[in-house]
Amino acid sequence: MIDRMIMRLLLALAAFGMIATPAMAQVDPAARGLAVQAQQQNVTLAREASMQGASLTKWRTCRAKLRLALVSTCKIAFPGDSKTFGAGAGTGPKFTVNAFGASRPSRLAVLLGQSGLPTRTNSWFGAGGMSSIADVLAYDPRRSGFSGWSGGVVSLGGASLATGNTNPGTFQPSVPVDRASIFYVQRPGEGIFTVTKGSETFTINAQNATNAIIRSEITFATKDASPISITRTSGGYVEIAGMIAWDSAVPGIEISNFAVYGVVSGYQADATTAWAPLNALAAYAPDLTIINLWTNNLNTAVPLATSVADIQAIITRAKVTGDCILEWPSIGGTSPSYGADATRAQWKSALVTLASSNGCAFQDDEALLGGRVGAVSNGLTADGVHETGPGYDIEAQTLQRYTAQ
Question: Contact, 226 vs 198, CB < 8 A?
């Protein structure tokens, strides 16, 4: 009796189209294909969403200790290309004049500060891929002087700033500071240089039998915003990879922009010398590494397998001391510029896999800016490749949620 009632109910529902009987069920092959595509897309989106919540345990542990004043700093490193450098946010032929302050790392620093996490941004690293000292100084006017200096060996932020003369290179802190770190190349035949702030001068000898990238710590007796100058005094060439200055009374997050304009991922994955970018990154020992590369790989026919190996090498080094966030770079304009859409989808999937397999968080900057069309129509790209200041700010907002939550 009950079985008959159930059967009648099912037949009634089928009559009203609420369910399909086996005899009536037909599947359109085209619809099936669309359904499979939708299912695959949902799986990909779910996978990305799960990585957006990646634990980032090492980073969050450091940040918690920082809030409790158990450590004085946590370090965020940004190995990248022109899109991390900030190109597009400035003016000039490469959109790099005065671009430093609007770059993604700089915007993240501002947002972290607004959320109650102080940051240390009085820093610079390398020439950043700029073709002249004039371009270096125009990108970040806090640097001045460096007359007769040139590009040295490649390290953090590209070519180090090198000199065989005695003309000073100067950095102007934006706040009173009493500490500074000087990053320099150590090897046989290097020179001796001084670091001066106000009336205080410290001497550093970069000549040593051991090849290395050195972070030399300096404590100034006076806390003020006087310029900090580096001057070669004798010996061979002096090669300075960077500087960080800060107030020792304020624990904070170091924001270190190691980006280099125009490079492919293999540049940042180079480990051929003690001071090469990958070895220097390991020496820096970041608590969090945010990687945005592959834009130039896609435009210069670098094989995907090579590109994956490069990113894996960077992740492996970075994970020794911290965590990682992988960013899929945005793009504007019409396909196939910087990779046809189908090619970009394949490469993005490979980056998602890298993030998933290494426990990294993942951020899709292309989606954040509305894809090719949205990036252009919303004024978020300067030239179809590089973000404008508002574009970098949108990307930094999502990074801020990762790093502050």
Answer: yes
Return the amino acid letter for 28: D
Chain centroid to CA 60: 18
Handedness of CA 111, 115, 120, 122 (dihedral sign): positive
Q: Any idea how long the chain is?
A: 405
Q: At what angle do helices 304-318 and 341-358 cross, to 10 degrees?
A: 30
* Euclidean distance between the first and the last CA atom of the chain, given in angstroms as a whole number: 59
Average pLDDT over residues 242-255: 97
Token pair 């949620």 is at which residue? 401
Q: How far apart are CA 195 and CA 186, in angstroms?
A: 16
Q: Are 147 and 137 in contact (CB under 8 A)?
A: no
User: pLDDT tens across 45-55, in order?
Assistant: 444 444 455 77
Three-state SS sequence of the chain: CHHHHHHHHHHHHHHCCCCCCCCCCCCCHHHHHHHHHHHHHHHHHHHHHHHHCCCCHHHHHHHHHHHCCCCCEEEEEECECHHHHCCCCCECCCCCECCHHHCHHHHHHHHHHHCCCCEECCEEECCCCCCCHHHHHHHCCCEEECCCCEEEEEECCEEEEEECCCCCEEECCCCCEEEEEEEEEEECCCEEEEEEECCEEEEEECECCCCEEEEEEEEEEEEECCCEEEEEEEECCEEEEEEEEECCCCCEEEEEECCCCCCCHHHHCCCCCCCCHHHHHHHHCCCEEEEECCHHHHHCCCCHHHHHHHHHHHHHHHCCCCEEEEEECCCCCCCCCCCCHHHHHHHHHHHHHHHHHHCCEEEEHHHHCCHHHHHHHCCCECCCCCECHHHHHHHHHHHHHHHHC
Give the distance, in angstroms, between the CA of residue 190 and the centroid of all CA atoms in the same chain. 31
Q: How many alpha carbons fall within 13 Å on the CB side of residue 280? A: 36
User: What predicted TM-score, i.e. pTM, was given to this entire model?
Assistant: 0.87
279 has pLDDT over 90: yes
Q: How far apart are CA 90 and CA 109, in angstroms?
A: 18
